[in-house]
Write a structure and sequence with these properties.
five-stranded antiparallel beta sheet, Chitinase A, domain 3, Nucleotidyltransferase, domain 5, six-stranded mixed beta sheet, 5 helices, 288 residues, 2 domains, 13% helix, alpha+beta
C-alpha cells in the first residue's frame, strides 16, 4: 500500500491544489518500510489526482481540499483522509493505527462569531496547519498589522512550547528540523509571529502568551449537537474521539466528540489549546 501526504517542511500542507510536494510512504504489513518526497510539477487539483494515481497511491492524507479535487481522487480510486494537520509522519502512523478518521460528513453548524468564518479565508490561509503554526488563534483580520524587520520574509525557527506547569506540548528540536513560515502572513499564532517579527538571526527569546495571543478563548458556539441520522458515519463514533467534519463551504475542520446518545451527537470544534497560556523558547535560525 502507498500513502501520500501533502507535504511542507515536515508538516501536512493545508491546500491540496497548491501543494508543491507529496511525501509518499510504502507500507507493508501495516508498517512504513520506506518513504520519499516527490514534486507536484506545478500541476493543480484534478491533475494532482492523476499524478497520485500514476504513482499507484492508495490513500491521500491532506488538509483542505475542494469538492472537485475530492471527486477527481474518487474517480482515480484514491482514498481520501481530509482535514489532517500537524506532523506528516505522525499522521501516517495514526492512520495505520486507525486513529486518523475523516467522516466525509458535511455539517453547517460550525460557526465563528465576530465575523470569523472558516470559509472566509483566501488562498494561502487556512484554519489549522498543525502545531504552533495553527493560524487564526486570535481572530483573523481583527489584529493590527505586524511591523518589524522580518515581516513578509520567510523565517526558519527552532522552538520549544510548554504549558505553565513545564509540560512540553511541541518542539521542532525533537523533530530535528526548523519550522519555516512567512512572518506576518497569518500562518502562525499571533504571539509567535509578533515575537519573531524583529528578532535577529541567532537570537533566542522566551515568550509567555496569553490565550488572546495564541488560540483564543473557548467559544461556546463552537459546541454543537446534531442528529446522528443526519451525519453519515457518525454511528460508530465515541465520546473523546477526534474526527473531521466539513463546514458549509466544504472545508474540513477537526472536532472532538463530547457526548453521544441514541439519536444525537455533540461535538466541540474549539481548538484543543483554546483558553491556555503558552510558553515558547524561540531561536531564529534563518531569514530569507
Amino acid at each position: 500500500m502507498k500513502i501520500a501526504v501533502t507535504y511542507d517542511n515536515g508538516n501536512i500542507f493545508q491546500h491540496f491544489g497548491r501543494t508543491e510536494s507529496f511525501k509518499v510512504y510504502d507500507v507493508e504489513d501495516n508498517k512504513v518500510v520506506s518513504s520519499e518526497v516527490i514534486g507536484s510539477n506545478g500541476v493543480g487539483h484534478g491533475a494532482l489526482a492523476g499524478l497520485l494515481a500514476d504513482r499507484a497511491v492508495d490513500v491521500l492524507i491532506c488538509g483542505g481540499i475542494g469538492g472537485g479535487a475530492q471527486q477527481a481522487l474518487a474517480d482515480a480510486g484514491v482514498e481520501l483522509v481530509a482535514g489532517a494537520e500537524g506532523d506528516a509522519d505522525q499522521a501516517v502512523e495514526a492512520y495505520l493505527k486507525g486513529e486518523l478518521i475523516s467522516t466525509g460528513a458535511n455539517c453547517d453548524h460550525h460557526h465563528h462569531e465576530d465575523g470569523h468564518s472558516c470559509g472566509d479565508h483566501g488562498d494561502g490561509h487556512s484554519c489549522g496547519s498543525g502545531g504552533c503554526g495553527d493560524s487564526c488563534g486570535g481572530g483573523c483580520g481583527s489584529e493590527p498589522k505586524l511591523t518589524g524587520r522580518n515581516v513578509g520574509k520567510t523565517c526558519r525557527t527552532h522552538y520549544r512550547g510548554t504549558f505553565n506547569d513545564g509540560t512540553q506540548f511541541d518542539s521542532s528540536y525533537d523533530r530535528g528540523e526548523p519550522l519555516e513560515f512567512v512572518c506576518g502572513a497569518g500562518q502562525m499564532i499571533r504571539g509567535f509571529d509578533a515575537a519573531v517579527a524583529d528578532m535577529e538571526v541567532g537570537q533566542v527569546v522566551d515568550v509567555h502568551l496569553m490565550p488572546e495571543e495564541a488560540y483564543g478563548m473557548p467559544d461556546p458556539n463552537a459546541v454543537f449537537t446534531v442528529e446522528i441520522a443526519q451525519l453519515p458515519g457518525s454511528e460508530e463514533l465515541e465520546a473523546g474521539q477526534q474526527v473531521y467534519l466539513s463546514n458549509q463551504y466544504g472545508q474540513p475542520f477537526p472536532v472532538k466528540v463530547v457526548t453521544k446518545d441514541e439519536t444525537t451527537i455533540t461535538f466541540d470544534a474549539n481548538h484543543e489549546m483554546a483558553g491556555k497560556e503558552l510558553n515558547f523558547r524561540i531561536e531564529l535560525v534563518e531569514v530569507k
